[in-house]
Amino acid sequence: MMSNLAVLPIIIPLIAGILLAFIHKKTILARNTAKLLSILNTGVAAYIFYYVYQNGTVTLETGGWEAPYGIVLVADLLAITLVLTTNIIGLACVFYAQHSLAEKKESFYFYSFFFLLITGVSGAFLTGDLFNLFVFFEVLLMASYALITLGGEKVQLRESIKYVLVNLFSSIVFVTTIAFLYSVLGTVNMAQMAERVQEVEQRGILTTIGILLFFVFGTKAALFPLYYWLPKPYTVPNPVISALFAALLTKVGVYSIIRMFTLVFVHQTSLTHDLFIWIAGFTLVFGVIGALSTDNIKLIIAYNIMPAVGFMIMGIGIYNQTAISGSVYYLVHDMIIKAALFLLVGAISYLAGTSDLRKMRGLINQYPLLGWLLFISAFVLAGVPPFSGFIGKLLILQGSFAEGEIIIAIIGLLSSLLILYSLMKIFVRGFWGEKDETIIVNKKAANAFTWPIAFLIFFSVLLGVGAELFYPVVEDISNDLLNPEIYIDSVFKE
Amino acid sequence: MEIIMSVVAGILFAAGIYNILQKQLLRIVIGTVILSNGAHLFIITMGKLKRGAPPVLEYGITEYADPLPQALVLTSIVISFGLTSLLLVLSYRAAQENETDNMEKLRGNHDE
After folding, report:
1. How does it sit in the membrane (chain B) (predicted)?
2. How far B63 CA lies from chain A's nearest CA (Å)?
3. What pTM was computed for the model?
4. Which of A140, A166, A171 to mutate to test the interface with B (most CBs of B within 10 A)?
């Protein structure tokens, strides 16, 4: 009976999304229902996390069909950790939304789309079937298309066309790749795919398919040659929507890369994983160059998504226990801090009335708390020791030194410096300086914005300060990832 | 048979990509439709086109066509219908708001 737990993080937001579509016009009711359901969902996810940590992977064969024939949902420790993180971010965003969105946008099915996005993301984390992963990708992408155009401004419509087209194209490639895989392996179940790839020791065609899959997920995750679509579309929607996108969408791509290249395509690592290291290096460099190139604070944060993704892929490329622990740690850390940063920048540009750094100064006089939160989160993101970014990066760098990958480690360290610079630029030029008398102080809005942000930054700091507490979980995860048999056995139940 | 189908799918992909790289918004939408048709044809082809009865249980028949790719393709078709209709409405609205359907002019500038 406990195996039914695995479906709850998908079914609760799905029902919530449907329910909220009926009451979308009663804004206050919808708002409170959404908050309540979000808390419930987070609670459930936390319970499942605890259960999985105590008892091992929960596998649900939907419809009672045996493993390779039906769809399986696999709540292993990695998946459920990410689902829990997703829900924590969703919680902060729901409480932020009402202050940031105009009532008209809020009543136009915002909460429905929000919950459908959460459904898609949780489903993508939990599924054990490649075609089902595609379907959940589409669920979350559809919700994201609706959210990115919510409001229908000129810029939004213009940028969202590019966003939709790139994602549509990569989805078509995804379907084609599934067709290839099905013709070679005769299955779309991930565990069975892993078994069969092992039997034929990953012939050349399978490595090709692996790289095709990497192309698909790399497009979703904004890796080096495929990132061009990301920065601008992420700055056009409302801050709360950008925060959801930045925290969740690219990370689903990263998760899929982690899953596929630690479970299925693990027999030609000299080829695939070396490619990852190169791509990670370029992603780091181009991401920070982008972040330094602009004075638009939203764009700075959007470009900062890429170096973070670069770090995670670097950990996968290095492929030893330390580096993979580092990747997982960095993934969880980055989801939380990116959401917090987007919410922060959204609040700053709302309160200052502009997102152009050249037009802001001295905000610390009016909004000290927001300023210090930005200061802390800059340190968290850059990886200054007591905070969570440090531990992830340290583990990845340790791993890379152990494998003798010195150049990539140096690129990683230098890019961290530039990440810190790009964020400190916001702090120094926006918050320092003379008091700007033209700004009308809006204490009420500032307070309302601060709480959800502080909530996320609290988790982020906890993740760093309480690293001793979280490290065993991460170590278990990386142990599972390095031994695919554990996953396969939990699906097929010997 | 598979070879012919693969070539046809390849032609569809080429035509779709050619259309996606055009300037006019509507041609891009048409390109995505052609591309998804290519992908769907490809799924059916990759599921092996060996002869057999339609996958409906009937008495006395032992050879069936593989039902799984057909189910996959059905799902994928519905999804791409949804996406295409969304994309059509989106491009209609975008062309209306920005007063152009030329992708070159939809770049935007820094003054916004």
Report:
1. Multi-pass membrane protein
2. 18
3. 0.95
4. A171
